[in-house]
Amino acid sequence: MARSRQGLENSPIPNFWNRWRAGPTEATLLGVDFVEVAAGPFRMGSPWGHPCERPVHEVWVDAFGIATTPATNDEYAAYLRATAAPPPAFWRDPAFADPRQPVVGLSWEEACAFARWAGGRLPTEAEWEKAARGGLEGARYPWGDARPAGTFDRPPRVGETPANPLGIMDLAGVCHEWCADWFDEGYYAHAPARSPRGPSAGDRRVSRGGAWRHADPWSPVAHRSSLPPHLRYTDYGVRLARDLAPG
Please, are residues 20 and 119 in contact by the beta-carbon 8 Å criterion? Predict the structure, then answer.
């Protein structure tokens, strides 16, 4: 499980906008680049990971889009301006205030609200791992088997850690990313083989990736973590996913 420091409860607007197909109309998303992850099977889990990462099993995931980086402070500032939502924990802490750092200190509900406003959603755990693997079956990390050198004293700016073959970045070394699923230690033993969405209830939500504040920030691609959904930590952020338009 991820160990993180609990936060307290408690900018400029992006200067460019991308458009992403969503059904018959175009939906505007703030400064976010997406890649399409093709439908198909992949092998989920790790034979050498924690017990909750076993057994390795084949999963089919429908096509979807996922952002190439986690959401940034710059992007989240636009949401705050538009909605008057309260800022997340650590918003005014200089260590977490760089516009190009990932926004952190979000609860699961805050991450969901931001994703809905942006026209997206949280990825499922299976979607996250399929996207993160980028077709590299059996690799330890999203980019291969080589562990990068270095540690961090704060979240690095997005785009500064290795990319996987799909061009998706910041999948390790940066922050844990909330997923849509409830967490279950033994879920892999009975998960459906097609588009699993986690158990129907629980007391912790899945997170993937991370995390800058760990002694070893370079999490293997199959590593599972979780957190009660109301908590806000300095290494918890959000990456947008989207359904693809039919056809």
Answer: yes
Query: Does CATH number 3.90.1580.10 belong to domain 31-243?
Result: yes
Report how many helices (DSSP H) and strands (DSSP E) the chain contains, helices first.
Answer: 3, 11
* Residue of 156, 168, 154 whose CA lies nearest to 37: 168
Q: Which two tokens stand for residue 38?
A: 């093709």
Give the pLDDT confidence score for residue 99 in this predicted structure: 97
DSSP letters, 32-45, are --EEEEPSEEEEES
Query: At a CB cut-off of 8 Å and minimum separation 6, what does 227 contact?
Result: 2, 4, 108, 176, 204, 205, 207, 233, 236
Rounded-to-integer distance, Cα 103 and Cα 179, Å = 15
Are the C-beta atoms of 113 and 128 separated by less than 8 Å? no
CA atoms within 13 A on the CB side of 153: 2
- Return phi, psi of residue 206, to 5°: -70, 145
The model's pTM = 0.88
Helix axes 73-83, 108-117, angle to 10 degrees: 80
pLDDT in tens, 176-221: 999 999 999 999 999 999 999 999 999 999 999 989 999 999 999 9
Residues in Cβ contact with 138 at an 8 Å cutoff, skipping those fewer than 6 apart: 43
Cα dihedral 102, 107, 113, 117 in deg (nearest 10): -10
Domain boundaries, the chain: 31-243
Task: Give mean pLDDT, residues 136-142.
Answer: 94
How confident is the model at residue 13, as a pLDDT?
A: 29
Q: List all residues 6 or more positions away from 116 whose beta carbon is below 8 Å from its beta carbon.
A: none
CB proximity list for 118: less than 8 A, separation 6 or greater: 29, 30, 32, 71, 75, 79, 240
